[in-house]
Every structure is written in C-alpha cells, then in structure tokens.
Amino acid sequence: MGTLSETQKRHLEQKLRSLQARLRNEIREALLASSEERHREIAGMVHDAADDSVADLLTDVNLKGMDRDARELDAVNAALDRLALETLGVCQDCGGDIGFPRLDAQPTASRCIECETRHERQFAHEQGPSL
C-alpha cells in the first residue's frame, strides 16, 4: 500500500467507515421521506401545470440526491475493499502513490492528482450539459 503507515491506514478506515454510515443513513432517510403520507397528500393537491412542474422537480431532486449518495457509497465501499487488499493509496492508472494528504482530503481517491486531472480532462464531456 505504498507509503501509508499503520496509523494512516487506521485513520483512513475510520474516515471511510464514518462516511459509509452517514451515507447509508442519508439514503435510508430519503427513502423513508419519499414514502411518507404527507408527500402523497402534496402530490394529490397538484392542480395546475405549474404545481405539477414543482412536484416533478422536487421528485427529481430527491432522486438525484439518492443517486449521488448511492454512487458515493459505492466509492466508499470500493475504497474499503482497496484498504483490505492493501492497494489503497496506489493509483489505478499509473500504479504510483496517492499521497496521504490527498487520501485524507478525499479517502475514496483511486488516482493520483496527475492521473485524475488527465482523466477529468479526457472525460469532461460525459458529465452532461451545463449552463
């Protein structure tokens, strides 16, 4: 696992486990909120196209948030797998070290800064349209 000490590994594992618990809770709370009776009542009160649009927007925002949380949870689980395999801190592209300061700031990082920058430039068009 490159240059990570045992203390750094434990620190990163603790951060990842905490993030994992928070994301699971956020997803659970969003799922519970989406099925609450008051949401059905609000949807039943929609009377015109403007109200319908607002209801659609709120639904889309809720779903996007859960999707983002689910993708982030996948990244956390992948980082925990890399930790168990002793590959956390090894760049998936070049095999070089991902320094502890980067992992401390972004514990799910799977690329060194140089490879991540290259990846973001190469695949920037896949993020979709922007305003």
What is the straight-line distance between the termini?
Answer: 41 Å
Give the rounded overall mean pLDDT: 82
Please tally the helical runs, counting DSSP H or I stretches of 4 or more residues.
Answer: 5
State the CATH architecture.
Up-down Bundle
Number of beta-strand segments: 0
Radius of gyration: 20 Å
Domain module count: 1
Shape: flat
Main beta-sheet annotation = none
Q: What fraction of the residues are assigned to beta strands by DSSP?
A: under 5%
Describe this structure in words.
The termini are far apart. The protein has a single domain, classed as Four Helix Bundle (Hemerythrin (Met), subunit A), CATH 1.20.120.910. The chain is mainly α and 131 residues long. Helices cover 68% and strands 0% of the residues. It has five helices and no strands. The chain is flat and about 45 Å long.
